[in-house]
Amino acid sequence: MNEHSRQAERMRLAESDSPTAPWRLWGPYLAGRQWGTVREDYSAGGDAWTSFPFDHARARAYRWGEDGIAGICDVHGFLNLGVALWNGRDPILKERYFGLTNNEGNHGEDVKEHWWVTDGTPTHSWMQVVYRYPQCEFPYAELREMAKRAGRNEREPELSDTGALDENRFFDVRISYAKAGPRDICVELTATNHGPDPAPLHLLPQFWFRNTWAWGRDDRKPTLRASTRDGWRRITAEHGALGRYTLHVEGTPTLLVTDNETNEVELFGAAANPTRYTKDGVDRYVIRQDATACQVVGPDDTSEPGTKVAAWYSFDPVEPGESVTVRLRLVEGDGHLDAFGPSFQDTVDQRKAEADGFHQTDLDPKRAAVVRRALAGLMWTKQHYRFRTREWLDGDPAQPAAPTSRKNMHARNAHWRHFDVADVISMPDEWEYPWFAAWDLAFHTVPFAKVDPAFAKEQLLLLCREWLMHPNGQLPAYEWEFGDVNPPVHAWAALQVYRSEEVKDRKFLAKVFHKLLLNFSWWVNRKDADGSYLFEGGFLGMDNIGPVNRSEPMLGQWRLEQSDATSWMAAYSLHLMQIALELARHDESYEDVATKFVEHFLSIAEASTQFGSGGRGIWDETDGFCYDVVSRRLPDGHVESQPVRVRSMVGLIPVLACAVLEPWVFEELPEFGRRLEHLLSRRPELQRFVSRSGGGAMLSLLDERKLRRVLSRMLDEGEFLSPHGIRSLSAAHREGLEVQVADQEHRMGYEPGESRTPMFGGNSNWRGPVWFPTNALLVEALRTVEEFHGGKFHVELPTRSQRQVTAGQAADELVRRLVALFLPDHDGRRPADGKRIESTDSPLWREHVTFSEYFDGDTGEGLGATHQTGWTALVASLLTDRRHTGAVGESIV
């Protein structure tokens, strides 16, 4: 491999440190699902899934975005290019991925298709996706019926359970994008028949504008004109902001022109449609043979203006093992004089080689493949996210009036009228979570920093910008309810991203720090109701982890003081302290701020251990663990409190609240050191949270004795330590337990797999499975302990094994168990594939790695969302972390 191939993508990145830089203008920003989102919900009852269902999506214009299969769009979300298919049997064109809604799935929403992002580069100079399309009629009704019959204790029915994939009767459609330049994109679609018989296939790449003109706010309408003149098939796009683009289509496909407008006659029984052609025009023309549904561009002709065009390629049949290819080229301006000449293949070959050079690593091939796939999926889940809450709440002038329910002060997102975003944002999952989530996004930036630090920093700053952050300092949680609360991990992520670069970006660190000061104040003012330094964040992203819904108020004046909320805030204080100290090295005005966060941390630490008339802390000496606490103030002024004795991840979060003060802190910032010493001399009871060694110190919510007790449970294979990482609930609760919370009895237990409760939709489970984000944080905490103690802090791993290892070796072992989920075992199977079709012996399935939302606490099978190369992409960071003390693939136990 030559030096240019190794450096080309890095050179493009150097030219593209702005989110709107030319090389970033086009990317995978088209959503995998727009229907069923809050943005498209204009119902009175606020049921997004039924307000805009899948069955409407083919014929109803979206208000805020678009969706498609393996598609791309410009950074503003105006012009879109995606893939549509038809196998000659389906009742509708395959234009978007199908899945069950929250009410249809037996474990909440669930996509029922197979596709994999196989490669990519951060400027999107090269991208590749494989979509697996059945040759039989797609079993839409059967999948819905199977899920309806299945209970919460049963597995989710999958596409393979219908027989649709038997005997490999499917097409693999490989979609490749290679940029010859920032505004010159070569597109190749190659479909391969893997079945035993010939089968028909229709490929219909589609080119369309997002509907921006039908809402009464901007009546300017872009145009698409399809032409067959001069022996070319091409589509010319004209847009007021984008200018002119030309899409060349190779060969002689039939060009079909329609409009991205709602078919109001078919969907809503209107007497007539406002436009002649509608969004489903191509579908009706191809499948229903409705000759009036769209314009057909004849020989040597040019169409009238439209806003959606398809190029219809028909292959009937495709022989077994045969592949067919369609090529397109999207170019700014009037087009390319030799669109499919040698430059096309040269571009594809060169960009693929440059991607190889960019991802080159000294990892062994199996681990390198996992890293490359994880990063490719992470980069693909960038989406253009547009949502103006004020307009959504009030309704549009050219549409029916907004329901009166939206005028209620308690309506969804009613207090977020300032929210006004139109940016590319990293999403948790392309289909199941096609909207940002605050703590997910923070975790995404850590692996992003490996390949695209500019984007990672931009994302962290974006969530703090005035058009997203609430004026009171709260960060928006996610679109279902911006006012919900996610864990405050933004400062941690900012530190990780900052430290990952050789040339430190202090300007970025200062910008994010100033905004997080507002967010920290919001937490203190809103989530510590009585100033006790014990916090009540809400569900904090861990959905059903408790016996009660932690987002709802307690009954009878009871208050829930949360072990995790309190510990997150202790960790938040330390992270902001570390940022302030780093900034103080170059600006002494930050030194006092660092002292403020030390004091706040120590106050939280003291409160977390207190007992007595003032209340109970989260630490429980009897069990050697941390619990949530419920408390209430009695008429006589005394406080009654009781722990919620469920051993879960909320009791492990205190481990995360630790930070090392390196010797340079006391050498370069003596005033900080003097202030800390003065505080400790004045309040000697706080000394237990500060350890010293070699001129440095470590601050920790748990002193060494308590940390050892918690770690003994965390590293116990009968409790938290699974073969695949740390469980979210102790396996000691396998038989279930009854726990009293606020004068009421509740029952819950260890559930290693799918959720058995409907809490938070029932589509995720924190009562036993392994989750990557919290595991990655626990690994980081053990590394911090190792950093301070220098190999002198030992733990038993596993508990009761009498095998002593250092904290760093314990971190290595957790990493080994986590990354092994994606690596073939002695039978050649990946634990994460579980019992799904991916675990079969077929190389067609074995070649693809699935990155799930979470993993069975016993078997390691991937569960939940199936394209969670958001935070599960942290596996790339774990595999490439140079701090491990031994080989990642070798067990030390």
From TrEMBL:
In terms of SUPFAM superfamilies, this protein maps to: Six-hairpin glycosidases
The Mannosylglycerate hydrolase MGH1-like glycoside hydrolase domain covers: 433-658, 699-869
Q: Name one Pfam family in it.
A: MGH1-like_GH
Q: Known InterPro entries for this protein?
A: 6-hairpin_glycosidase_sf, 6hp_glycosidase-like_sf, Glycoside_hydrolase_63, MGH1-like_GH
Top-rank taxon of the source lineage equals Bacteria
Instruction: Write down the PANTHER family for this protein, in alphabetical order.
Output: GLYCOSYL HYDROLASE FAMILY 63 C-TERMINAL DOMAIN-CONTAINING PROTEIN, MANNOSYL-OLIGOSACCHARIDE GLUCOSIDASE
Q: What protein is this chain from?
A: Glucosidase
- Origin species, per record, is Saccharothrix hoggarensis
